[in-house]
Amino acid sequence: MPRLPKTYKNEPVLPFATQAEWRRWLEENHASHDALWICYAKKSTGIPSVTYAEVIEEALCFGWIDGQAASLSETHYLQRYTPRRKRSLWSRINRAKAEALIASGRMQPTGLREVEAARADGRWENAYASSSVIEIPDILRRALDSSPSAATAFAGLDSRNRYAILYRLTHAKREETRQRLLAQFIAMLEEGRTIHPPATRRKPVAE
To answer: 53: which residues sit within 8 A by CB, 6+ positions away?
Structure first.
């Protein structure tokens, strides 16, 4: 197995071969650590490694959540996990996972507190759709129909930039804000600009 780093960006890095190992780590450390980078082995390597689906289940149980990912090598990559921050938004996917964890009795007190806080302040009800299921709002569809150049640019966006537009329009709290964003996005598309730099292949941070 390639040598793995002990830290990344001055935060600890650990690999987990099984879901049970990750849960044990959380049981012992969820209240005393601010962050952890999990080192995943890529499926093609055949190296025993916990999966993202397994990790996020246990993270939700203890009030933790996933964050940014980073390429590490040809065989491994990293993803950061932290305790959920105050007012952190919930996705509909994680909301459904949390409900299933509560029903099965696996949810822990720290995770349940995060759920109850989200229910109390409206974040639970307003959970956002993931990029794979979010729909184009009618106001954007009509605006694109009126601007062929913007429509062409929108169709060519990578998933990150597409979702950035849809998310902002969908979650604008005031109609005047939504209309202002819409005008900005249409102008941006007509000029060939994007919110985020176009996706490029990441270079490994270590070998």
So the answer is: none
